[in-house]
Write a structure and sequence with these properties.
The protein is α/β, with parallel strands linked by helices. The protein is built from nine helices and ten strands. The strands form two sheets. Strands 6-7-8-3-9-10 form a six-stranded mixed sheet, with helices on both faces. The chain has a four-stranded antiparallel sheet with strand order 2-1-4-5, with helices on one face.
Length: 242
C-alpha cells in the first residue's frame, strides 16, 4: 500500500511543554485517515506539522517520499481549519472568487470550479447568499468548498464537523467518501467516536502519543474490545464523545 505522508519519530514541544512525542505514521494514498483523540491530545498540532505550519522539535515529515517542503506541498493540498475563515459581509460566491484568485485559478476556469465545489457540498442554490445569512453548518460546508477549490490531491480537515447536528454530519461524511472515490486522500481530526468507524484507518492519539494505528476493526481486534472508546479506557485515558 503506497504511503503519501510519512512521519518519522516526530516530536513537538512548546517551551517546556511536550505536545507530541516520537510519532511514526504512514498514511496511505487514497484513504480516509482519521486522527482520533480527546481535546488537547495534540491533533491540531500534528496536522500543522504535516502541512508545514509548525516545525518539528525533532523527527521528519515526508510527502510522497521526499522531506516536506511547504512550497511544494501547498499547490497539492486543501486545508480546513477548526475555525471558519470567511468574510461574513460577502456572498459565498465572492468568498470563493477571492480565494480562487489567491490559489491562482485563471478567470476562465473559476466559474465552473466554483459551481463544482458548491455542488459537492450541496450549497449551489445558496451561492449568491451573504455568508452572514448562513447557518453554522452551512459555513462549515462552505469552508470545505474553499479547501476543494484548486482540486487538491490531499485534504487536511481539522474537526470539520464540530458543532454540526448528526444529520448534517452524515451528509458531510457522505461527501468525504465521494471525494475518496475520486482518488483523494483525506486526513481528518475528530474527537467524536461514531466518526471513527467511517474512516479507512485510524491513528489513536493520547497524551501526545499514537497508541494505535490500523483499521477500526483491526484496532478493536488487537485490544480485544468492542469499541474504539474502550481502547482509550484500556490505556488509562478518559472516554471521548460518542
Amino acid at each position: 500500500m503506497d504511503s503519501i505522508i510519512q512521519l518519522s519519530a516526530l516530536s513537538k514541544s512548546f517551551g517546556s511543554q511536550d505536545v507530541l512525542n516520537n510519532i511514526t505514521l504512514h498514511i496511505p494514498k487514497g484513504h480516509i485517515y482519521g486522527l482520533l483523540g480527546p481535546s488537547g491530545s495534540g491533533k491540531t498540532t500534528l496536522i500543522k506539522l504535516m502541512i508545514g505550519l509548525e516545525t518539528p522539535t525533532s523527527g521528519t515529515v515526508s510527502f510522497k517520499g521526499n522531506e516536506l517542503k511547504a512550497s511544494d506541498l501547498y499547490p497539492t493540498i486543501g486545508y480546513m481549519a477548526q475555525s471558519d475563515a470567511l468574510y461574513d459581509e460577502l456572498t459565498a460566491k465572492e468568498n470563493l472568487s477571492f480565494m480562487a484568485s489567491l490559489y491562482g485559478l485563471k478567470k476562465a476556469e473559476r466559474k465552473g470550479q466554483i459551481e463544482k465545489v458548491m455542488n459537492t457540498v450541496d450549497l449551489l442554490e445558496h451561492l449568491n447568499k451573504p455568508v452572514h445569512q448562513y447557518s453554522g453548518g452551512m459555513k462549515r460546508r462552505l469552508s470545505l468548498a474553499i479547501a476543494l477549490l484548486h482540486d487538491p490531491e490531499v485534504l487536511f480537515l481539522d474537526e470539520p464537523t464540530v458543532g454540526i447536528d448528526p444529520v448534517l454530519r452524515k451528509e458531510i461524511w457522505d461527501s468525504f467518501h465521494r471525494l475518496k472515490e475520486e482518488g483523494r486522500t483525506l486526513i481528518i481530526t475528530t474527537h467524536v467516536m461514531d466518526e471513527a468507524e467511517r474512516c479507512d484507518q485510524l491513528g489513536l492519539l493520547q497524551h501526545g502519543e499514537i497508541i494505535s494505528s490500523d483499521t477500526p476493526a483491526g484496532i478493536k481486534d488487537a485490544y480485544g474490545v468492542s469499541s474504539i472508546e474502550d481502547v482509550f479506557l484500556k490505556n488509562g485515558g478518559v472516554s471521548i464523545e460518542n
